[in-house]
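Q: Is it fine to ask for two folds in a single conversation?
A: Yes, each is treated on its own. Send the first.
Q: Here.
A: Result:
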Amino acid sequence: MSRTFQRTVATVAASLFVAGSTAAFAAGPADPRPLPRNPSAAARPLPKGEKPAVIKASADDAPPALAIPNIESEEQTPVKATHGKGSDPFADRASSNLVNRSSAKGSDPVADDETLVPEPTAAVSLLQDGVPPAPGGSNEYDPGTTEPDDVFASPETIGCIPYFPHLGGNYAVCLPHAQPVFHDECIPEEHEPAYWRIKEHFIGCLEKPHEPLVHLFECILHEEHVVTALDVNPCPIGIQPLPPRPSLVIEWNERFLSPGWLKQGCCTPTGEVVRPAFWVWGEYRTHIAYRENRVGNPDQFTEWANRLDLFGQLNLTGTERLMIGLRPLDEQDGVFQQWREFTTYDFKENKWIDGWNTDVQTLFFEGDFGEIFPFISPYDFEATDYGFSVGRQPLLLQQGLLINEDRMDMVTVTRNTLNGGGNLNLRITGAWAFNEINRHGLTAPAAFNFEEEDTQLFGLFTESDFAWSTVNLDAAFLDSNEFGDDLFAVGLSFTQRMKGYHNTYNSFLSALASVATDGETPAAGDGQLLFGQLAWTPHHTEDVIYVNGFWANDQFTSPARGPLMGGPMGQVGLLFAHVELGRYGPVLNNQTNEAAGASLGYQMFFDHTRQNVTVEIGGRSGTPRRTGNNGMIGLVTNYQRAMGQHWIWVLEGFVGKTEEIDMTSGVRTEILYRF
């Protein structure tokens, strides 16, 4: 009985062994390759001449060095990760089944076979919502503890999406194949509107000189032009170290923009907490300039001029401060205050010009009523936030077109943070100036700046922020008690970014008018002025191209202008602006009596933006209503180079031509030190 039972057990075991061996032989070895997302998109060799469809997966979703099996080879190919050398634990393993995609041609047994479908740039993605984590697994993949054999293990499948529970996270492998994409002729191609096609065609014509100029100055400077990087690095850059902040000359009690704890401060009788601090800083400029055949002054001159601006600021709180400024190396000269006399050595006359002085250029106090008297509205429910300033201070309106004065004794009151009706923020400032008001005339005897006694200026200035633009509406009235030539002037401007079809553009438009209420004089005239600026950045660069233009009707006059500012058209470009150092004035006349002009400039950046070159061409001419006016044209090149954290070197030269007058030219080199 027992022998018969033993024979039966042996027969059954032999039958099971034969059946298992046959099934194993028929099934073959286990296939470690993941299942495709779409069975119809399974890997297959392509016939000769047929191009494969490639999916570009996002590299941001790829974990570092996660390898996938090669479809046409038993070799395993890792996805290249953007890590530094030594950061990939698989990169240094001497394993024949790891192939680096960045290797030279011939090192990849699959890359040279044209019949195989290429792999995408990133084939591994992290599963999003809807895929549960592996049992007992972590959501993080640690390449330092995961072995390569685990990476190539067979995946499980959730629906149609395979994932690797062996990795301790939800990682799915996307196969590099998909359904081919065909062009659908039923979908119309998008074209730019006709008006933008015309505008940007004109702008494209203005950009044509940009590239030759870049190549020219690359050869001259032997520096690389700054371009925008196109490659997207999926690795986070992390926290970058900041360069050390240069200290001011004096930083008492609290440092300027320094990290750390704030001082305790002291409480005033009004309830305001005061934390006093005193800072001193400044700027020194010196240049050597040569110029010949100036318009109206054909004499040549060569000078070495110097200018020093010193500022001191006593901070009481974040909104209250006392500001003082000096310019000891240049002084406002003469009874009529026609110009500023700089400390200069005149090489032609072989003499020194002394501009040393101790005059106070700037001295004012500014604050906020709501902060000085917080007990009036402890919880800021009341409208008590009125800013104010009292003292000698500069004033700039409409980018210097309406008023550009570097010092006036003035009182201002400002109401800010008003909104409603589509207005995001409205600022209103009322001003009253009662001393140190300089005026600029267009014709003799007031062809230069002069200062009037007992003259007052009243102004109302507003700035409104809308979603589409920033709007400035400014008005000023000059009450002249000395000569009786009162003047009223108003300006309206719009500053906005315009979005074109291929680029965005920064634009500024301004319309101004002046009315001589007591009749026209050499220093007060009736007239209108239109001014516009357009600037944009060419694609893949940090450069700037700008086009500026103006048109002046009759005799537009500004209520107040500083001695060095000249006419209102200094904003047109380098050719029209005063350098505000020495006698080196603007190349082209910046007056606004019956004239029109424009400028076109290219600013190019090199050496990681530490060097820049600006090339500008421009001109002006009289309008048909004016007789006896000569047209002018000029070309200027300005080079700037940063040296360290404090120094800037400037080199500038120009050539110009006026009708019926010889060519004008000039060159200067400047060193600017900020401390």
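Q: Second one now.
A: Result:
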Amino acid sequence: MRKRLVYKYLLIIAFVAIALYAIHSHGVKRGMDLSGGSRLIFKIDTSALPEEEKGRLGLTEETMRIIRKRIDPAGVLEPRIQRKGGHEIIVELPFYRQTYKIKAEDTLKDIARKFFADEEKWRKIYDANKELIEDPENLRPGTTIKIPGIKAEEMKRKAEQLGTLEFRLVVDEHSKDPEDKKAYDEAVAGRVPSGYKWMDLRSAQGTVEKLLIKFNDPFKITGGDLAKSYATTNRYGLPIVGFDIRPGARARFARLTELHLKERLGIILNDKLQSAPVINERIYERGVIEGRFTAREVQDYVDILNSGKLPAPLILISEDYEGPTLGQDSIRRGFRAAILGLILVLIFMAFYYLASGLVADFALILNLILVIGGLALFRATLTLPGIAGLVLTVGMSVDANVLIFERIREEKAAGKALGVVIKDGYARAFRTIFDANVTTLITALILFQFGTGPIRGFAVTLSLGIIFSMFGALFVTRAIFDGLLIKGWLKKFAMFQAFKQPSLPFLRYSRWAIMGSLCFMIIGLGTFLHRGEENLDIDFTGGALFQLQLKEPKRIGEVRNEVAQAGFPDAEVQSLTGELGGVTELKASEFAIRIRLPGGTEEEQETQISQIKAALESAFKDYAPLRKISVSFPEVRELKSPVGERQVEGYYITAELEEALPESAKSAPVWRPSASAMLGSSYITRRVPKKG
């Protein structure tokens, strides 16, 4: 018993140590709503596509899906990816800012060149640290400055790469095919035949080898023939890309390598020759790609290859920095509400369950540390919905402890010994706690599997909370009570009891309760169906994006209040190039305001835009009028004119489709809750014992 208890304590200490290490090493990344981020606008270059491909309806959606898989392969980063116009895509990336300590030899321009290959972008660092730099005394060695765009640069490289992978034969004087030998002789003489191309292969020592690559072979092995790719190492411990071949392509790959044993196979990634190894054996199921790769480059290539090839190249046409969607005022209120709720729960447990409540409080705090450590370990992004998941975790953890303590109270009333009371109390509460948490976990897993953005963030936090709340309630508190029993420090299980012998005839009113519940369900469903699209926000329906520039800088909370007073309390207000990652409450002079449109025809929506514009101009009449308006329409098919630029009442308008969620996510309100309910009900049905 004592030895097993020691192992339990060691396991708890190990979990907490891992969580604290993850928090210290990685920290918890905050989402766009809490920290702001980068706003990139890409345009799909359709110039080289066939005419039938240029107008393909799914082209933009396919590109958005590939971008999401590349920059967020694990589904925890929570980028916001939206369609803009016909072939433009908005990508918003959280937590882009990092810090850098100035060295004695550094100048501001040196720092900019170090972090940005493009010298023209050095102004971003100046803008991000303007107040600091305006006083030269502040810019001295050891000063910490903010470096914007580091994360965005990495994600940009992933998004923009076409993602092409080709396996092509290297042709030389030793080639087995006579035509290849002839082509090589002609290429050496300066006449490269059609279907062949000289390419450079750079070695680890920096030397360049020119190789003639054959592009017209009958095998046509490309990245589309790979089942998956993954990061691995070679026999020297250097990072390389491993890949598995799809069953349908294995015969072709095997035939290619079998016919050309002892010849070289060129591996071309993103139009660059990465390596040209000699084919030493027949390759059937898997292989590797070697090159001068760093570990980060290998992971980038893996993400790119697994996401698939882009249907057309991407061109970056705009890059901005946005402040937190919520603003510092809302963020503070959210954190204060969460902390206040936690404190009240801790006080209640300690007051009502006395010493046992303190044990539950300890397990609850431990649970929060483990959840936050899990978020840091998995590099998940914490958003306001994630904080809501944490608060829900607190409630579930306390609920489990309440069930256990009430079961212990019942066992104690039966006159059993204290050790038996604790053992039987946990045993009787286990099934209820386990079933309740598993059904909730099923819902969380469905949300993670089919959700996007903040939905997935909430699901990750909720899943971790469920797992660790069960761990805390069933394992940690039990280990503590067992230890106290062995030491002889737990003499009695004293708890406060508000109702000595409650006797409420619940079953007597069961019929009325069922009838009332059905009435509320019918009324609620009828109201939901009657409201239609009014139930959905801008992420589902699209809307108008207003870019507002003021003469004088204002805090985002003040701007949000002005917009709400103008009649748009649900508008999403975001500062542009303003608040620096939530570090300080800085003012901004430029804001993006997203407002949902009720729908209707193009003419009706343009009327709505004019009315919204007039209302905003009236609200901000003491400042500059609206500089630019970007308009989105919920349904492209309702547009009578092509999507593009046009003038409306002298204001610049760009028709957009501002939908943050893909089609699969939009159907969530219809089938996802139903699927969760069905799976949960199925689980409970199987768990309930049958009579007889």
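Q: Anything structural to flag on that second result?
A: Two points. The two ends are 38 Å apart (CA to CA). The mean pLDDT is 76.
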